[in-house]
Amino acid sequence: MRPTLPHQIRDEAALEDLLAEPSDADIECVRRLSGDVLVVGAAGKMGPSLARRVHNAIARAGTRNKVLAASRFSTPAVRQKLEADGIHTIACDLLDHTQINALPPADNVLFLAGRKFGTLDRTDVTWATNTLVPAQVAGHLAHSRMVVFSTGNVYALTPAGGRGSREDDPPAPVGEYAQSCLGRERVVEFVSRERRLRALMFRLNYAVDLRYGTLVDIARKVHDGEAIDLTMGYFNAIWQGDANSYALRSLELCDSPPAILNVTGPERISVRETAEWFGSFFGRTPRLVNTEGPVALLSDSSRCRERLGEPAVALPLLREWVGHWVKAGGASLNKPTHFEVTNGQY
């Protein structure tokens, strides 16, 4: 039985433990999985906690499967921590196809590698990272099941008062980052159709981990007295631990041609109402500028919840966690989501 969720999270050690705590459904999933799990792009924002969650689920299930974590590991401490937890790491520059071809086979692959920030500075690197790399990894590991992290940015902006985009809606990405993400999906789809790779496009927006995320962006701006732009008036959010759980269990939903899954919380969240809530929590008046526009980037996650269940962490609790974290001066990754961007330029 999963322990009762806390009212607040004290520090980064407690945060990491909670992110990596497997649910009963996670444990049952790994009991059914055959073979090892390879996490590609394991040193980013989500990779370490996802690798640990899978590792912990395997340990609880008592199976002999292993977790392998591949990344450049430009920050050695990340690699050292994963190794200390019993996860085998592989140093791999994913822009070097010879290193990709040296990756060991694995029945299950969680592909997290991608580039968003700095898109305008080096669009060539963005496209190479988001299209060439997944094409080469998918080709090398075509006999695996592969959950490919994507984004809700591949959809068009939709009416702000509507349900959001569904998996069957046609993509209409705005800007080179979003276009390159659709490119990632298309090249993996090609490998899937040509070589029967079983895959799933994991269209996520936006994960919240207390050190980053949409709710964190708004909370920090309210706390620091910075202006909050209301033009993108609504957004989605999901606790990163729930996103980790969905990613693991999506391995059982992989198919050829690839399945598609929108992954986010069930709510259409108001920027204005969120800022006002944090204003009340901090005892500060939020600085709101502009007014809500007619469209927003929103996803309908009904299919995910129907197949994999409701998120374990509801929005009110997640908001409380963020509020306490920011008020206490909790750590930040200093990686804003830029969810307020409307022109696709990151």
Describe this structure in words.
- This protein has one domain: NAD(P)-binding Rossmann-like Domain (Rossmann fold).
- The chain is an alpha/beta fold and 346 residues long.
- Helix 6 packs parallel to helix 7.
- It contains 12 helices and 15 strands.
- It is globular, with a radius of gyration of 19 Å.
- The strands form 5 sheets. A 7-stranded parallel beta sheet has the order 3-2-1-4-5-7-12, sandwiched between helices. Strands 6-15 form a two-stranded antiparallel ribbon. Strands 8-11 form a two-stranded parallel ribbon.
The coarse overall form would be globular
CATH architecture: 3-Layer(aba) Sandwich
Could you name the CATH class? Alpha Beta
Indicate the proportion of strand residues: 15-25%
Number of helices: 12
How many strand elements?
Answer: 15
CATH third-level topology: Rossmann fold
| Average residue pLDDT | 95
H/E series: HHEHEHEHEHEEHEEHEEEHEEHEEHH
Essential attributes:
12 helices, 346 residues, alpha/beta, 15 strands, single chain, Rossmann fold, two-stranded antiparallel ribbon
Helix and strand topology:
Layout: H1 12-19, H2 24-32, E1 37-40, H3 47-61, E2 67-71, H4 76-84, E3 88-91, H5 97-100, E4 108-111, H6 123-140, E5 145-151, E6 158-159, H7 175-195, E7 198-204, E8 207-208, H8 214-224, E9 227-229, E10 234-235, E11 238-239, H9 240-249, E12 259-263, E13 269-270, H10 271-282, E14 287-289, E15 295-296, H11 302-308, H12 315-327
Parallel strand pairs: 1-2, 1-4, 2-3, 4-5, 5-7, 7-12, 8-11, 9-14
Antiparallel strand pairs: 6-15, 10-13
